[in-house]
Amino acid sequence: MSEETIPPPESPALPPVRDWPALDLPGTDFDPVLRELMAEGPLTRIKLPNGEGWAWLVTRYDDVRTVTNDPRFGREAVMDRQVTRLAPHFIPARGAVGFLDPPDHTRLRRSVAAAFTARGVERVREQARSLLGELVDAMLEAGPPADLTEAVLSPFPIAVICELMGVPAADRHAMHTWTQLILSSAHGAEVSEKAKQEMGAYFSGLVALREDSTDEDVTSLLGAAVGRGEVTLEEAVGLAVLLQIGGEAVTNNSGQMFFTLLTRPELAERLRSEPEIRPRAIDELLRWIPHRNAVGLSRIALEDVELHGTRIRAGDAVYVSYLAANRDPDVFPDPEAIDFSRSPNPHVSFGFGPHYCPGGMLARLESELLVDALLDRVPGMKLAVPPEEVPFKKGALIRGPEALPVTW
User: Fold this and answer.
1) What does the DSSP assignment read for 352-397?
2) Residues 6+ apart with CB under 8 A from 14
3) Dist CA 323 CA 284 (whole Å)
4) What is the pLDDT of residues 346-375, one digit of tens each?
5) Contact between residue 394 and residue 24 where contact means Cβ atoms under 8 Å apart
6) 298 by DSSP, 3-state: which?
7) Does residue 248 contact residue 365 with C-beta atoms inside 8 Å?
8) What's the rounded Cα separation, in Å, for the pair 124 and 49?
9) Model's pTM, two decimal places?
C-alpha cells in the first residue's frame, strides 16, 4: 500500500449534544437528565435552554476536582461569550470575583478572607444563636401551624450574612428583596439587573464610608483594602454583592434539609437521640441534597486539554456538576442513600479549587445552629401538609421550598 492510500488516524467521535431543559423538579428529586448524562460517560456534551452553542459536562468526582483546580480552564474568558447556559439573563460584571482568574482572583479573595476563617465565623456564632432563639420563640408563641421558611429559614440567614457583612439591621429587608429578584428568572432580565445595580450602589456607599475602619465585618475589610489601594471600589462592590447573595442560598439549602428530615422522621429522631453525630449528619445532608438546578458558571479551556482520551479544544466551554460528583459511586459507596455514618465524606457541595465558596464554614455553622434549635426546641414538629403539597420554587437557579408548612 502506498503512502497516499494510508487513511489518516481517526479522531474519536464526539459524544452527541444532549438538550438539558430547565426542569422545575419536585421536592428533593434528583435531576433525571443529569442522571442519564452521568451514565453516558465521564465527559458528555450539553445544550442548555439559553445562550449559544454547546458545552462539555464533567460529572465524575476526580475530573470535577481536576477541572476546577486547573489553570488551563479559566473564568475570565466567559465574559465575551454567549455560552450555553441555564439562566435567561447573564450579565456578568467585569471584575466580579466569579469571573476572575488568579492572580487577580487571589488578591480579591484575600481582602475578605479574615471574615470567613474559623475565627471570623466564630465571631458571629453567639449573635447568630441569639437571633435564631428569638425567631424560634416568636414561632412557638404564635403557635402552630407555621411556615418554617417564613418564620425561621428565611430571616435567619439574612440576619447572619448581614451581621457578617456589616449591613445595618434596618437595611436587611431591602437586601432580601434585591437578592430574591437577582436569584429568580421569573421576573425577566431587566428586573434582575436593576436589583443588582441597586444592591451594588448600596454597597458602593457602604464600602466607601468604611475606608478607615478597623472593624472585622466584610464591608469594613473591603473598605480598608480599597483605602490601601489593594482592590478597586468596583471589585469590592462586585465581591460584596456575590457574598450577600450567596449568604441567602442557605435558606434554600436548609429548606431542603428540613424537608428531608420531616419526610424521613427516622432521620430526625436519630439526630434528636444522638446529638453528637449532628455535624457529620449535616455534611451527609449537604452531600445528598440537590441544591441547584442544572449547572452554575462555565469555564473556558485556554488551551487544548485531553481528558479520558477526548480532546477539549482551546475555546470550548466546560461545565462541572458538583451534584453529580457528590453521587460518584467510586467515592461515595451507595451514593443514593443518606448515611449519617459516612466517613470520610469529601463532598464538593461548596465547590473546589480557587472558586471554592468562601462562605462554606458560615453555611455549616448556620446549619448546625438550625438543626440544634429546631430539633431540640420543637420536638413534635412535623409537616402540616402531605409532602407532595409542599410548594417548591419555580424558575429558580437554587432549589428549595417556597414554603414549608409545619405543625407540632
Assistant:
1) -GGG--TTHHHHHHHHHHHHHHHHHH-TT-EESS-GGGS-B-SSBS
2) 45, 310
3) 13
4) 999 999 999 999 899 999 999 999 999 999
5) yes
6) coil
7) no
8) 40
9) 0.91
